[in-house]
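Entry 14. Ran structure prediction on the chain below.
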Amino acid sequence: MNEKDIMNDYLSMIKGSLAGYATIISETDNPQLRQTFQQMRDMDEQRQFKIYQAAKQKGYYQPAQAASDNEITTVKNQVSQG
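Output, structure tokens:
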């Protein structure tokens, strides 16, 4: 397994963890347990971003083209009318 595959696998694993945290946090009644899961989620988000930046820098990941100002405005308007 090469470095690119390892980074992609790790990013996929973190993505799965983040989805799991969202479910757990939304269903947890105990404030201290909820806070613990929120902290764990925050740490995983930080790790994910560092790995993403490294993958992007090495050319392993090419982000999508940035949205134009008009596209952003259109989406904002659609969401606010929702």
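The CA atoms of residues 14 and 44 lie 7 Å apart. Will compare against last week's run tomorrow.
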